[in-house]
Amino acid sequence: xxxxxxxxxxxxxxxxxxxxxxxxxxxxxxxxxxxxxxxxxxxxxxxxxxxxxxxxxxxxxxxxxxxxxxxxxxxxxxxxxxxxxxxxxxxxxxxxxxxxxxxxxxxxxxxxxxxxxxxxxxxxxxxxxxxxxxxxxxxxxxxxxxxxxxxxxxxxxxxxxxxxxxxxxxxxxxxxxxxxxxxxxxxxxxxxxxxxxxxxxxxxxxxxxxxxxxxxxxxxxxxxxxxxxxxxx
Length: 233
Fold this sequence. Notes:
This protein has one helix spanning 2-26, and strands at 41-50, 53-65, 68-79, 88-102, 105-116, 127-137, 141-152, 159-171, 176-187, 194-205, 208-217, 222-232. Helices cover 11% and strands 61% of the residues. Strand 11 (208-217) and strand 12 (222-232) form a beta hairpin. Strands 1-2-3-4-5-6-7-8-9-10-11-12 form a twelve-stranded antiparallel β-barrel. The protein has one helix and twelve strands, in the order αββββββββββββ. The protein has a single domain (2-232), classed as monomeric porin ompg (Porin), CATH 2.40.160.40. By secondary structure, it is mostly beta strands.
């Protein structure tokens, strides 16, 4: 009788822990494989600083159903370098994502368009992009990778580039997470080749996350840091 009671108690506690962990990870927006459920609306907003520029980024995404998400984002920036005039709207973008597989190995395809503003002359044209991401989630860690290709169709300033982004994301506790990633960018114009190393710390309260992040670019020895807030409605 005691063994049976112990077994029932152990199973019940395990299910409770699993349920709590699953619930705490359900709205983990910073997870590299996060995908909105049907009728979930996610808003992300934040500030970043790097290269003497403060940027304000706002993004929204909405789950049409469990396999299709649409989104939009906008960026405005203020340049403190007196030798440049990169103030104003950086871009306005729209994007879509489709979940190909949601089983053990998750995979998504996505595409988007960025309508460039007047803030960065080097990218003053419309940018078309498409990509693929793949990974697996465990209880305490997510490992994922993304490949993204982007294109500018212009007779003078036209170019194309590829970003390869491996990422590791650790759920340290039910409410604290740490993520790290590398972003390898290869461009048809070598002047724009970049390699970024990033680190972020996440604190989660239910459907809200507070994120602090830092990035380092190896080619130009540049730092970028900032923070954002994610909310799921």
